[in-house]
Amino acid sequence: MTYQTPIAYARRETPARSLRSIEYDLIAQVTQRLRAAWTKRATDYPGLVRALTDNQQLWSTLAADVAQPGNALPAALRARLFYLYEFTAVHSRAVLENSASVEVLTDINTAVLRGLRGESGVA
């Protein structure tokens, strides 16, 4: 019996992506889902809840990361990002209570995306 050695691992079809690129794509996807869910909120409230939950999970993960002692970001930026996590939690509750819109949440995410692209105006 002959065995064929799998060689799929030996050749990379696509280049490895940086963590920054993956982070950018994730934030962009969550932001787009927030915008789409907001426009359909009257007919798909559960979709809005899912989008807000996804955004909260994203910010919770970012907050946990910037709170790590070994995080290499400048302390002031880490503090601002942690504050934005806290703000998104409070504002998300206001959205769910129908007393706020998702606009400020998408604006925050967009500012972070600009920062990840190296543009000015980071969160």
Q: Would you give an account of this structure?
A:
- The protein has 123 residues and is mostly helical.
- The chain has one domain.
- It contains four helices and no strands.
- It is globular.
- Principal-axis shape equals globular
Number of strands: 0
Distance between the termini: 61 Å
Query: Structural class, from secondary structure content?
Result: mainly alpha
Segments where pLDDT lies below 50 for 5+ residues?
none
DSSP helix fraction: 55-70%
What is the strand content? under 5%
The domain tally reads 1
Number of helices: 4
Report the major sheet: none
Radius of gyration based on Cα positions: 19 Å
- What string gives the helices and strands in order? HHHH
Mean pLDDT: 88
Q: Brief overview, please?
A:
With 123 residues, the chain is mainly α. 64% of the residues lie in helices and 0% in strands.
Features:
globular, 123 residues, mainly alpha, 0% strand, 4 helices
Compile the SSE list and pairings.
Blueprint: H1 19-39, H2 45-66, H3 75-96, H4 103-116
Helix pairs in contact: 1-2, 1-4, 2-3
